[in-house]
Amino acid sequence: MARSQDLPFEIIYLIGEYLDRRQLATCAFVCKSWNTGTEELLWSRIKASDLRRGGQATVDAFRTKGRWIRSLVYDESQESVQRFALGERRYPRLRFLTIHKALAVDSLDREYIKSCKDIVQKNRGRLESLTLRDLILPDTKPSSGNAHWSPLMSLAHPTHAALRTLRIIGGTLPSRHMPSFWQICERLEVLELTNVDFELSRAMVPTYRSLAKNQYLNSLSGKRDQDRAVRFPKLRELRLVESGPRNSVAQLEGIIRRCPELRTLEWCVRSYSFFPIRRFIHLFTADPNYYWPGDPSHSISLTQCTSKTWPHLTSISVLNHYGYLFTVEEYQLLISSVQGLRNMHMRMTGLIDMTAKTLITRHSHTLREIHWRHVAGTGASTWLLIALSLCPMLTKVECMLMNAQELIVSAPTWVCTTRLKEFRACIIVNDLAELSSRDAQVAGLKGRIDEEDELKALAEQVKTEQCWAVYAQLAKMRALQILDMTSSDASTGVTNWYHNRAMPLSLSSGLCQLSDMTELKYVGFQGHQNMTRLEIDWMIKHWTRLETLEGGKMTTNGSRFMNGANYWDAGLARMLNRHGIKTPGSQYPAHYDAFDWTVPDWEQIIEVARKERDMMGAPDDYGQDGSDLYTLLSEDIFSCEL
């Protein structure tokens, strides 16, 4: 760092663009030249919620550096002196704003509402993205004396022409606020509605009688059918998660169908809602065979379309349609009717070779996500490995099960290793008898070995070799952020039969090869893991961005297996929690404090590990770039900060 003081500010600024906020803060703290050269970059990434306990000194610094602020997260939980002061300044570079709860209740909330209103009004011409959380708006006009501010009505002002992204997460949109909402939507490019309740007006959900009347009048006047007016002419991304009217047909016709420029769709219907599969396929493909006139009792007009409703739609996620599964034929029709598909995420009744082959070969150069985790039947993992070898743009892949031996064989041909950010699959380690390369050796051993322990030792050796090879391949995914080695939902009983064959989270099994995966934020493991202080210390040191370590353990209830929460020693879970790593579902006996908090004897650990490895005879080429267990432990002796 001493040499870096001689670098010009321009070079420091360019280097700082490749660093995250934590790295920038570290450099600025230890080096004066870096503090000056990266000040603009650092403050452009700071959020108001990060300065919650700073007091008046922090508020003064925030005001001084306000000219560089690009993102604000503004919520009522901040210190009063700070949250009131934030609204007094105009931020010339503010582009992204998040507001929590915009409903006045007491005097403090009135001041908070006033600050929110000031921030929005002073940044009308430059605000590009707005996120509203827990939005509660009154259905009636507020009485005199009560503080009230509607962000939707304020955003509908023509001076808010720069707004392109709107996210509403939790809340209710009363009918009196809907005209402002529709006016805002006319210029949006990204819209997210998550758990937002609102009803469509009768103008957007016409009855059959009004539709017939409008068609008759339009035929006389030549005017366009007003019931089919485009509400989202510029919208490219739509995320509709359990929001809008309760009727999913109304969601499809009143919202999704009115987005002609849609590129990305994520639609999650309510759990009790009917899902119109045939209607969705008809709008997407314009296939007359799937035209469904609808149920007159719904009072929703379902006209037949002659062309594709969304000609540019290339990323589709339709979730939570519960008992309504897409058949293989329907899935085949969807992937065949689109060019340049990036993602097709929906539950299917199965997966046949022809469907998987069409998806991979037809869209190999554009496919970015493959979601086969809930696909019924077998064969998904084999085709997923083929996709990893043919689709260079993949960033997310998932399936229920993946054979370790198949992964090792196909790994050298993978073409998307450096791009992958999410990998979800339960990797099953083979039993000794299932390895074709060891069949002859196993047969010979069974004939000449009398003791069963020696055969088990050989099986354990083969399992360890497989684990080292699998971890060596996973280590190449250095950009990975999510590594989920569970089969599906850890709380279900579907995963019971193979829990003992899952990948072990053990340094002696090759986990140490993942030391370069510094971007990891979530790690999920399958089955019971006998992790020790050694593994926990290693994770804390090398996975510096890890936020969650989650897994499950098989417990027995009589003759029935139950997949319950993971059971860790109190000390291990406590150590992870103290370092900001969540361990959801971890359980341990109450008042248990039998964990040894002393610093481990690393020299003894290294010596024991070497002897164990020499006795097992594991190959030396499973380590990657010299980052095996012994090199890693002897490079830097560290103690965990408790």
TrEMBL record:
Annotated ranges, domain F-box: 1-46
Q: Which organism is it from?
A: Dissophora globulifera
Q: InterPro entries given for it?
A: F-box-like_dom_sf, F-box_dom, LRR_dom_sf
List where this protein forms a coiled coil.
none
Query: Pfam families, per this entry?
Result: F-box-like
Source taxon at top rank: Eukaryota
Identification of the protein by name: F-box domain-containing protein
